[in-house]
Amino acid sequence: MNTFAYLIYFLITYIIVVHVGFSFYRNGRIFILLLLQDEKMTDFINRILLTGYYLLNLGYAAVMIHSWKTNLTWTDLVTTVGNRIGVILVTLSLIHYCNMAVILLISRRHHHFLKTKT
Fold it and tell me: For the chain, what percentages of helix, strand and coil (3-state, to nearest 5) are there?
């Protein structure tokens, strides 16, 4: 039963992580560009964020399997998969807000650098 739970978990997690990551990548570019006003820097930061996002979340999803207990019933399976997906979703939101805070700090530093340069 655990193998079936792993398959369901990885399929749902993969779909969520890839869909959310691509959405952040596509929509985040506009946000970063407004903050930095530098297209090369924006594309560079956006690609780094996407790569780090995928590595961290897919790796975290794989590591979470280690803490699973054996699922003996369908109720255990649904509960375990639901809890693990919930943890992934909370992790995604925390990472997103941390990334936005870092981008805000980078943009402030970038604007400060531009002001002192002129």
Answer: 90, 0, 10
The pLDDT tens digits for 91-107 are: 888 888 887 888 788 77
Tell me the two tokens of residue 56: 């961290």
**Rg of the chain, C-alpha, whole Å:** 19
**How confident is the model over 47-65, as pLDDT tens digits?**
998 998 889 888 888 888 8
**Integer angstrom CA distances of residue 6 from 54, 60, 73:** 19, 14, 14
- Contact criterion met (CB below 8 Å) for 14 and 86: no
Range of the domain at 62: 2-117
Number of folded domains in the chain?
1
Of 94, 95, 112, nearest to 36 (Cα)? 112
Instruction: Specify the pTM.
Output: 0.70
Pull the structure tokens for residue 99: 């990334």
Per the structure block, which two tokens stand in for 86? 């919930």
Distance CA 37, CA 47 (A): 16
